[in-house]
Amino acid sequence: MxxxxxxxxxxxxVIRDRIRHGVYASGQRLDVDxxxxxxxxSATPVREALSELQAESFVLNWPHxxxxxxxxxxxxxxxxxxxxxxxxxxxxxxxAKWLTDEDLSNLEDLQERLTAAFRDNDLDLxxxxxxxxxxxxxxxxxxxxxxxxxxxxxxxxxxxxxxxxPGRPELAQSDHLEILxxxxxRDGERASALMRVHILNGKNLVLxxxxxxxxxxxxx
Length: 220
Prior knowledge:
Blueprint: H1 7-21, E1 29-30, H2 32-38, H3 43-55, E2 59-62, E3 66-69, H4 74-95, H5 101-119, H6 123-138, H7 147-155, E4 162-163, H8 168-184, H9 188-208, E5 218-219
Antiparallel strand pairs: 1-3, 2-3, 4-5
Helix pairs in contact: 1-3, 2-3, 4-7, 4-9, 5-6, 5-8, 8-9
């Protein structure tokens, strides 16, 4: 049964996704009335949503100035990627012991669909499939309590998003295939090392690449 969501929760979900996808850029002012009109609701639930997103560090609300997408420093971004590398590297090492042949076949199918989405330039679908690919691995780390929840929380942080930079999709797919090969061999240590490199490569690209004028769909 579908759980009920308030208008404020629905608004928060839309705004959060738009920030994560780069539709609302870092530092951009968020016009309450404009968002309310776009979502066909009153301004009140939008204001409630922005307060919720402030608590999640997506939005900054300034008295007499309005609400703005949080502007993250390079140091904050680097620290988040470093933490992701540690947690996700550990998770994939644990998961290597528990992934079934069916799980691995599912990961290979997701990877094929992800490659096709990039080839078709369907970046929204690619982002969804990429996250599903990663999370299916981490969910298998059942003997490491709470790690999936921690990782999921970091993925929802907008600092964790990586705009599509020339060459990045191809490199990411190559990384995925190497990780899958290590998982097929049940080599948790190698899979862990490859995952850490995969994430830190993303960190370096984020820090070394100037922000574009208009953000595109992110990959991780």
